Amino acid sequence: MAITVRTIPASQHLDFLTTLRSASFLQTPAWAKVKSEWRNESLGWFDGDTLVGVALVLYRQIPKVKRFLAYVPEGPVLDWEKADLAAYLPPFVSHVKHQGAFGVRMGPPVIVRRWGTRAIKDALADESVTSLRQVEPDETNIAAARVYNDLRSLGWHPPKSGEGFAAGQPEYNFQLPLAGRTPDDVLKGMNQLWRRNIKKADKAGVTVRRGTIDDLPAFHGLYAETAKRDGFTPRPLAYFRTMMEAMQSEDPDRIHLYLAEHEGDLVASTTWVRVGTHTWYSYGASSTDKREVRGSNAIQWRMIQDAIAAGADVYDLRGITDSVDKKDPHVGLIEFKVGTGGEAVEYLGEWDLPINRVLYTAFDLYMKRRG
């Protein structure tokens, strides 16, 4: 029987996600409310009457023309390693084309390679190695090669090569495996610096608590300070308020705000997200003052322990680059995260399919000019 794709209610979309151990929070119906400036749609893939996949599709309009880029961040949610993509993707493309899409961008959540702590540390110590691409992975997913080839044969464009963060979602992430592990197991797997900093924070009297939506202004003040220090443009307070309201209304345990305090001063604040058995460190902020009390380590350790208590298989520290070059300003990110004892994972990346090449090219140029 042919695979069909059609619009489904958000409730059916959410019910499907609850049957899975892992799906990106960017594919939850709540995320549509967070990205309210985009038109959105919940889609379902059906094998006969059986729902076999879902997607949150965000439609971004091209200026002055009523045509859209259809964007599926870290999705669709399909059984990518088993699905016949020649049967699954054409009806999806046909559907979004009918909705006015001139092109499609999606991010198949397929892991290609993994590098463990030892491989990363050795690479960081070797001056002749500048990228994870030069390092022998600890695990390679053979099925990812089939997905790659199938996408190419169906006309999709592979990820663009290059360093740093590509537009959209990061291709490289850092994850801490938790399945079957206790907090003591995880603590023992951390490096000496992380263990020492966690103890230092505790000895200094740093306390970590879960906050509420009323604590968002405090978080945002610290986040804006972090943005200024690190040179990125901060999102407005209203964005985080919408995010917490939307995600907590979908599931009270979907998102939590954490605050690390020392003698009445906020020294670090973060957001934690969960879908099934996958948890994420989403946003983080830290104070320039009192860095010596190690609030960032304390708050991460609390979130990791809460992830274990929630039955999580993985604690995801999100994006890194593939760089292990000491001269690269991004390398500090992987150096901080590798101390947890986790692993770097490479995803298949985001893929594009132009439907109308003229409009697709025009939109691409528009986005590049916007920077």
From TrEMBL:
Transmembrane spans: none
InterPro entries the record matches: Acyl_CoA_acyltransferase (IPR016181), FEMABX (IPR003447), PG_Glycine_Bridge_Synth (IPR050644)
UniProt keywords, alphabetically: Acyltransferase, Cell shape, Cell wall biogenesis/degradation, Peptidoglycan synthesis, Transferase
Domain of life: Bacteria
Protein family (similarity comment): Belongs to the FemABX family.
GO molecular function: aminoacyltransferase activity
One Gene Ontology term from the biological process aspect of the record: cell wall organization
Gene3D superfamilies per UniProt: 3.40.630.30
SUPFAM superfamilies in the record: Acyl-CoA N-acyltransferases (Nat) (SSF55729)
Source organism (scientific name): Raineyella antarctica
Protein name listed in UniProt: Lipid II:glycine glycyltransferase (Peptidoglycan interpeptide bridge formation enzyme)
